[in-house]
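Sample A.
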Amino acid sequence: MKNKFFVAIKTAAVSVSALMIVMVSCKSGNGEDVDNNAVDTLEKVIPLEDLFLPDTAYASAQKVVYEVEKTDTLPHFLKDVDDRYASDFSTFTFRRNMLRDASFSGKLDHRPETVEIAWQFNTPEDNYKTSLGNWGGGTGWTGQPIYVHWKDEDIEAFKQAGVLVNNDFSGEEIIFASLNSRAYFLDFNTGKRTRADLNVLNTIKGSPSLDPELKNLYIGQGVSRSTPMCLLCVDLLKHQITFKYLDSKAWRKWGAFDSSPVVAGTYLIWPGENGSIYKFEREQGSLKLLETLRYKVNGAAPGIESSIAIWRNYGWVQDNAGNILCINLNTMKPVWHYWNHDDSDGTVVCRIEDGKPYLYAASEVDRQGMNGSCFFIKLNALDGTVVWEQKIPCRRIDLGGKILDGGMYSTPLLGQGDCKDMIFANVCRNRAAKTNGELMALSTKDGSIIYNISLRQFCWSSPVAFYDNENRMYIFTGDGEGNIYLIEAKTGKVLYTKKVAYNFESSPTVIGNAAVVGSRVNGIYKFVIK
């Protein structure tokens, strides 16, 4: 059912700054054109409410039972729709930006031939036995590191605060959280520690997020080691955990936060595996909860392990019951609902095509039984209608009493350059095809499969891209056996492969001609593409 746009949004938007300014020529008072060398300008302001997407609830949203809990009676509308991650070459959140479209990519000056290890950092292993076993060290799924190139004034602030341990710090920093319940801070150029290791209390599986405007590090706990799971804010000026949040009212009693939060319209949006999505107000070293969306579908509150994708005031997530949900972040109410058949942990990718947002998403094979399909789909992001659907046969397998699901855990990679109409993803086939894992290339126009490459093992890691000086695309990825691959994206030709580690579950971060990624057990690697 469609509703009229809230009048309150228009009222609130009057006081906010303009988002887009168009400069137009003025004429002189007598109607004659002004000399171009002395032209005056007039600012044409496009009001914020004109950039907001409508406050609509489609019929599909009626399947969602929800409540929005507020801490006050004030409306907390987005104050802008800017992507605060788009203008920086750093990587502050999973897949870099609000769209989660992995627009970050490396640059090469020639066709690559090989991959070298620039440095390796080994974390200690934690043998503490949790309710879900031992987790060791290194990084797991999704485990993408943060890369930040600090400004000189930031480095000086850290020196004044006494939080740096490396006097030769280059200003380029890698930050990641480990399965061993520690966060680590490394110099990107050398792999040496820049700050002391930080105890984050519980096992971390997901990707932390760095605030694009504050010196806050946001970390979500993934498995309880010694305390109940919660979300954390680390004040980097104090090098301490300064805020923790545990939701005692959550509709689902699994309190993990594998999702990587993102700042939208000055608010921090953070989904949880407890059936809730949170909107926080941010300040240095702390968060203030403003609104919480709790929801159920078919009587159950699902958990969200994926990271939310955002465009303007709409956000999209998929959960472990196969629901894909569009949310109006101004009101925190559902806009539409789509069911994608099965557990879905990978993050949806949003891309603007011909001025309209579209989503790319995929499911696993879990609830379907031992055999089923990964449903790879493209949706109209405004109303949830299907553009195309590709069914990829996959299996679950028994690994000595532990069941490994099939399908897609990775986040798809959109092609650019000579692959602009292609999308790539790692899929766990588990012998439903030739091998356990494949890298698949599909058409973004109709979902047809262009090619698939057999990997040596299943793969949860998300592929990343590099482009040479002729804008040809190359893919770097790893698999569950610790192999790395360098692939010519247009043709699927494997240029280089080598076994390096135990298991690359984590997704890489790309910087120039390098990729940094962690493995299970303990190794964190900086790879250089040459």
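Sample B, a different protein:
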Amino acid sequence: MIDIDLVVIGGNTAGLSLAAEAQEAGLPRVLVLERSSTVTPHEAVGRYRLDVRYLVEITAITSEADFVVLQTNDGAILSRAVAYAEVPAGRPVRPGYSIPESIVDQIQVGEMGLPDGPIDVLVVGGGEQAIEFAEKATERGDQVVLALTGSADRLSRLARETLTTLEMGRHATIFWHTQPNGIDDVGGHPMAIFEDRRTPDLQFDHVVYSLGLDVADDAFAQRNTTVDVTNGRLFLLQDIEEHISHPAGRLVPAGNAWSTLRDLVFSELPAPIPLPTVDRAEELRTRHYNATITHFEKAHSDLWLIRVKPDVGDASHRAGQYATLGLGYWEARIDAAADPIDQERQEKLVRRSYSISSPILDTTGYLVDPHETEDLEFYIVLVPPSDNRVPALTPRLALKDVGDRIYLGPRITGRYTLAPVQDPGSTVVFLATGTGEAPHNAMITELLRKGHHGPIVSVVTVRNLSDLAYSDTHRRLEARYPNYRYVALPTREPGVPKRYIQELIDSGELAKVSGTDLTPATTQVFLCGNPAMIGPPEWDGDNPVFPQPRGAVEALFDLGFKPDRRGHPGTVHFEEYW
């Protein structure tokens, strides 16, 4: 009989992580048993020098005093503890909402093969299997978004390392603490509608749900394994749901499996000593950040122009699209507000989506060519804390400078683009509040670069003229291009009448100040910024239901313009996240 300290059944990320952590802690005899001929990730075997035995079938698990006895097709094993990490057979859990029949072929529930790629894929799940699936998709060359539904402390070390690798290499975008609450059919492709309104709706070629398994039968019985353990030394490693259960075993989340086993069975081994705070923060920056701030210009203390260069990949994008920036919760804040976060999130990233702006003109005075830039520009305002909201990202970003590290999401996307503008002689009107003009800067640059000769009008409302960081550049454009007009509408500037965009539309003043007719047949209107200005409608069949107070979309609708809605492009286009 082989004498072992710890036997791990199952060569997946949870099982291999436990084996690696046990060995690193000083446990001398650790054995991994795997039913198949391979483990995942296979490189972990060499990296951690794991002892793995393949093609092992277990027929019985019993206990004798303070030991567990395993009967296998290769003999008996005596162990101080056994951890069961195999994922049992079961029916994949389906999402709690219906999927349109027209796109069911593009929705996958459970672990199956993906269609021929590369494709744009969303993986929804919170456990080890979801992460493994996302990693395999990136290895195929797919563009991957992983929406994690579970808690990070349930994940094994190797799973967390995989997430870090995916983020650092910009191989995948990781959405923490949010998930889709619905899927729509838009143009024959799945559109994921996220529960967090700060996460924009996204369109994919394929959606994979890896939400766990509904296991009806005894997991050990499925493997023809009899179990009779009474000493509490059989541990059942859980993924996202407690789908493995047995009265003889203790349920243990994969994320703290080793600490639990050490406390209950291997207490002679010392607990790990935590790293000092400063070292830990630097370690987290190295682990999570994948880009560098190359430009940080303050129009004033609360308004910034920031450029970010990724470590890998390029900065190519379509004008009007957005990217994700992130900093760790461990970073210092410029204000004294207290983040409403728990210990689990203290070492996580806070991420926000920002539309990509443009410097418009390069250092020589020519229109910027986005294909020749290595970084992305963002137009960001410091958000102060309030009674019901403590902003997490901008108070940390306020303390950064050129050369500092930051997280940049790999997915640059968005449907708010110039695709509707097909006629170079048409009128294009951009309406924005504050930093909502960021995507319009890039879109105006693209129109002028392509020789658009119809009227182009950009209207921006801000509190004070000092809140217009790009005003001098726009005035230079006006002097150079006769078809371009820039209109600034301050609402709190002394001596300047307060005027809001929707009021200008209703009164007919917008056409006067912009110097062009607002004719629905020949005009495309783009809106970005405060939702109260935009006033995006809900839809009752073909009828728009507008919010109150009245927004710009309703005012334009009354003039004969048609707002965009899914599957029905119009002449009024607006960014849908804030």
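Observation for Sample B: The first strand starts at residue 2 and ends at 9.
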